[in-house]
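sorry to bug you again but im stuck and you know this stuff better than me. what follows is a protein written twice so to speak, once as letters and once as structure tokens for the fold. id like you to explain what the token line says about the fold, in plain words if possible. anything you notice is useful, everything is just below.
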Amino acid sequence: MSWRRAVLGAAVLLGWSSGAFAQLEGQAVKGFRLPEYDEDGKLKQQLYGETATFLADGIIQLTGLKIEIFHKGEVTARVFSPTCAYDPNRKRAASKDHIRVVTEKAVLTGDGFAWNGENEQFQIFKNAKVVLDGSLEADALGPEAASADVPPAAGEE
């Protein structure tokens, strides 16, 4: 790891103010990684970027975004986008580019997104599509789903 990458990573981890980030304006690193831990010291989420460019307002412009979200030490979701802007002070990321969210039981895609790392909410702005795993059982959706009268699909009458 280069000294510049180590210093910039430490700056983010230590939560430097946007004024301190102004000193890093225009600096870029390759292979950016920013882990976040919960109050018990367990890995909560990890943000990656192929490149990270620090802007004067404290925003980090990332290319090759990947976010891993953890639960009980296991990755439960991965988020991918070609670019995004990340605000480490507010723990938020946003982009107008395509987004892909992969979980064990579903894949979500769309164009443009906003992610709030504090409350773990994710919003897709346009062309949102959800593909569920075909092995998902109806009873996994709740007892009322298994007994619901579902009209047949077109051509199945």
About this structure: The CA atoms of residues 114 and 123 lie 5 Å apart.
